[in-house]
Amino acid sequence: MNKTLLSLFLLIGTASFTGIRAQEKPPLAWQDIASWQSIRPYNTALSPDGQWLSWTVGPTEGDLKLTLRHTTDTLKYDFTIGGATTTAVFSHNGNYVAFRESPKYAEAKAAEKSRKPLYNKLHVVSLPDTQKVAFEKVKDFSFSGEQPDWIAISFAAPEGAPKGDDAPKGTDLLLYHLPTKKSFNTGNVAAYAFNKTGSYLAYTVDANGKNGNGIFLRDMATGITTALDNDKASYSGIQWNEEGTAFALLKAKKEETYKTPVYSVIGISHINGDNTAKVIYSGIDDEHFPKGQGISEHGATFWSDDLNTLFFGIAKLEKKDDKKDSVKTDTTAIAKADTTGGKDGKKAIAAKPKAKADIEKPDMIIWNWQDKRLQSAQQVQQQRDKNFSFAAAYQVAEKRFVQLADSNMRNVVVGPKQLHAIGYDYSPYEWNNSLDGQSYVDLYLIDLKSGTKKLLLEKYYQSAARGIPFAPNGKLLSYYQDGAYYALDLTTQQTYPLTTQIDASFVNELDDHNVTKPATPHFGWSEDSKYVLIRDNFDLWRITADGKQAISLSDNWKQTKVQVAGAYRIYPDDKALDLKKPQYFSVFNDATKQTGIALLEAGKTGLRILFMDDQGYGGLQKAEDKPVFAFTKESSIKSQEVLVSTAADLVNARQLTDNTPDQDNYAWSPGVRLIDYVSDHGDTLQAALYLPAGYEEGKSYPTITYIYERLTQGLNGYAMPAYPSGGFNRAVYTSNGYAVLMPDIKYKLNDPGMSAVACVVPAVKAAIATGIVDGDNVAIHGHSWGGYQTSFLITQTNIFKAAAAGAPLTNMISMYSLIYWNSGSTNQPIFEASQGRLTPGYWDNWEAFTRNSPIFHIKQVQTPLLLLHNDKDGAVDYTQGIEYYNGLRRLNKPVVMITYKGENHGIAKDPNKKDYAVRMLEFFDHYLKGKSAPEWWERGIDLLDMEKHLEERAF
User: Exposed, middle or buried, 220 (CB in 10 Å: 0-12/13-18/19+)?
Assistant: First the structure.
């Protein structure tokens, strides 16, 4: 054999052998997920100098580590942090990093059962030399602001310490000097806060017997500590102003007259040792303060920028009842009884009145049709109501109290610079809003000097756009009404149209809820208050505050279906978008689903797309003090990684992380395809079709259709293997040889179910036409709203061989007037102004309600159904699942309903998550792959045998 043929033979043989070995990689099993290694999301941190990036990584179940990686070379450190994730905190100069170490995963699990108290450890690492110091039983910590020489560490109370409202709240506070490693301990500290520069530390003492309680201020340069106020009282809520020159807090003192402590607001300013200015105000002796009210512990307490006004909240302050607990005795009746003989001739003695505490009272709720909030909503929101406070202010120089909010105008927003406030009065519309969900409000301009109110907008329709942002100068605000944006000058009350002269629509064309002219996004004001940045359905506009000039920063991107998706806020001290600095925006192509990042250079009027491709980009952040940028990148087959660049245009970005290393050990999806199709309503839509592991062109595969609403916007998102709350994980299914189809659904009002049929069935047919999907082995799954659509689709089509519906609505008529127990409100607003898309009530819309209810078409079901509905579901009432299950069972349809006791709308407990995930895969494997039916599906499990059954399956 010649050498060329031999080489070709060896090459082909090697390639074939490599292909066989690749195919031999095992599919990902649910049991494998416990050890799956991944970086935890939302826990990355970039040091202020941009030199270090941190993240946490570890198995799904097990102990984690924190990684510190240098951004310019390969230097990396790993630290064990126990079983809970944490986020590293860097000192301002980047020389130190601090992070918590929690108890080990196994120890924490054991403590859940034994209720043994566990504590965190704090590690502080010097990054130049990696020296580390650890502190045990730490409660919290804080670096000393912009002068990072100190770290303050608060410790947990010792075991056996007294508890309760009257127990002292203070514990040890350690001040650790980082350069010299010297420690200074202060005992009985309840609260503490550095100012922004770190030059001062304010702290409160709460000691046993309230001995030495007070508010103290330590000069961090000299170490001199000043007692600003001492009393037999409790102090809380230290809030520095932004400049770090003043702070406010609350003081609580028990008074014999009142049931609860009487609070005062304390304002500290003009810091100068013992000569520091201090004002204390309780309102108790102020004739202008509302009777029966007191300063609330739950209100926001802060200084105005000019240090002339203190803002706080007020709430009901109850006096003690001087009356005795016993019921008053009717002495006349007793006297009369003393002179009247009984049957035996003896004097009758009146029964001793019962004490109030001994009287048996009915346990009841009264539901009145005039209630603005349902009784159930009041129950759920009871604690919030108890803690509610009304915004108020005290003008220090004038010694004048001003009430801003009241029982009708409960929500008041104080604008920047404290020049104006806006009050929201929902009371005229609250009852109707609780019925149909269409939110209206009267908006008032509040004079912060006098408290007087002036109506700005009457019956403002909030459902279209919730936000009413102030300009940073506090003199302007912007709002949306009837398809257009406006600016309002709060000084003159003059209104300026912002978008009416622009040849574009600012009505969100993708929002198909029952909302009149929903708004496109508002990205806020510019830092100088000269411009607003508002997007139409694609392009971003820079509009002058008077509406006279508008420039498209994205230059007619609508033609290519590219839209500005969002603005990154990368400058933490900026109140708005400072157009004198480079600004970054996320971009999205609605046609291709590509994502990217665009740059608006300082002073320029055109966005430049830095990159946009078949990846998912996000999480852009900038180092606080240096031009170092970090952002994330992922795809449908590659997990999220963090990249760092030192260039403003993000070029030459280096990948610093190495996520999900276990993926190479398993069979994996090779990618995703975007499918275009036309719905039965004539709309051109798209669907994502994720390919199964080992995919071969020309071969068809069993397919799971997963539905909710519009899902293709996440086309390039990675599905992290995990134990899901709803049973389905895309990565597990594609690894196990399934294709996964995720179609978009566009809704027509009063036809939510029929809309799903009109969109999903054509999507399935289009997917089958690609040759990838085996038309004889297609299943469907959805949870919640997706569960409803699943349970409805199988009444209208037999295209699916099996279906799994999680927590589905099944009877739109009964569901309409049931309670959404998680919030306590009725479902009626959800139907009429949100996801339900049915309006008005079924009594005037009977045909639509029945046409879109699975229960009314139940006789047509021929698809085997796995149904999940938990008995404590606070979103979709448990009776919805019971009704559907019993109806199918009465018709002898193949159905199994699984209920996890005590679980809510989604499954929370890990053993239950695991169990349902395994059962769903077994169910689909049986119907789509021909595997043997599991016993629980084939014959069911008797209750007496359930414990043994669960023990055998547990992992």
Answer: buried
Contact (Cβ atoms closer than 8 angstroms) between residue 804 and residue 923: yes
Distance CA 270, CA 505 (A): 52
Instruction: Give CA–CA dist 292/283, Å, rounded.
Output: 11
| Bridge partners (DSSP) listed for residue 66 | 56, 79
What is the spatial distance between Cα 882 and Cα 888, in angstroms, rounded to a whole number? 10
Are 772 and 691 within 8 A, CB to CB?
yes
| Long-range contacts at 474-478 (CB < 8 A, ≥ 24 apart) | 474/415, 474/416, 474/417, 474/418, 474/419, 474/420, 475/419, 475/420, 475/529, 476/525, 476/529, 476/545, 477/415, 477/422, 478/522, 478/525, 478/532
Which of 794, 786, 790, 759 has its CA nearest to residue 676?
A: 759
Between CA 658 and CA 644 the distance in angstroms is: 13
Confirm whether 955 is domain-assigned.
no
Distance CA 902, CA 872 (A): 5
Give residues with Cβ within 8 angstroms of 113, minimum separation 6: none
The neighbour count for residue 209, using CB atoms within 10 Å, is 8
Residue 218 in tokens: 């330590």
Mean pLDDT of 413-424: 97
The pLDDT tens digits for 864-902 are 999 999 999 999 999 999 999 999 999 999 999 999 999
Six-digit token string for 604:
């320029």
CA distance 897 to 867: 4
CATH of the domain at 908: 3.40.50.1820
- CA dist., res. 605 & res. 42, Å (int): 32
Distance (Å, rounded) from C-alpha 265 to C-alpha 298? 12
253-271 pLDDT, tens digit per residue, is 999 899 999 999 999 999 9
Q: pLDDT tens, 442-453?
A: 999 999 999 999
pLDDT tens profile 768-823: 999 999 999 999 999 999 999 999 999 999 999 999 999 999 999 999 999 999 99
Residue 399 amino acid letter:
K
Residue 160 structure tokens: 């056996």
Residue 791 falls within a domain, yes or no?
Answer: yes
Q: In this model, does residue 327 exceed pLDDT 90?
A: no
In order of 353, 406, 447, 531, 756, the CA distances from 423 in angstroms are 50, 10, 10, 24, 41
Q: How far apart are CA 564 and CA 504, in angstroms?
A: 15
| Stretch 548-560: mean pLDDT | 95
Rounded Cα distance between 728 and 781, Å, is 8
Please, which residues have CB within 8 angstroms of residue 808's CB and are 6 or more apart in sequence?
782, 784, 787, 788, 790, 791, 854, 867, 869, 876, 880, 881, 884
pTM above 0.85, yes or no: yes
Which single residue is written with the structure tokens 């052998």? 17
Give Cα separations from 843 to 86, 159, 814, 819, 848 (angstroms).
Answer: 53, 61, 12, 18, 10
∠ CA 649-655-657 to the nearest 5 degrees? 140
Number of structural domains (the chain) is 1
Residue 677: its pLDDT value, please?
A: 98
CA gyration radius, the chain: 33
The residue segments making up the domain with residue 909 are 671-914
The answer as to whether 412 is a domain residue is no
CA distance 66 to 121: 14
What is the number of alpha carbons within 13 Å of residue 886 lying toward its C-beta? 7
Instruction: Scan for tokens 């991944």, then name that residue.
Output: 38
The helices-and-strands tally (H runs, E runs) of the chain is 16, 53
SS (H, E, C) 832-855: HHCCCCCCCCHHHCHHHHHHCCHH
434 within a domain of the structure (yes/no)? no
Q: Where are any strands of DSSP class E within 691-730? A: 701-706
Residue with structure tokens 């602001």? 145
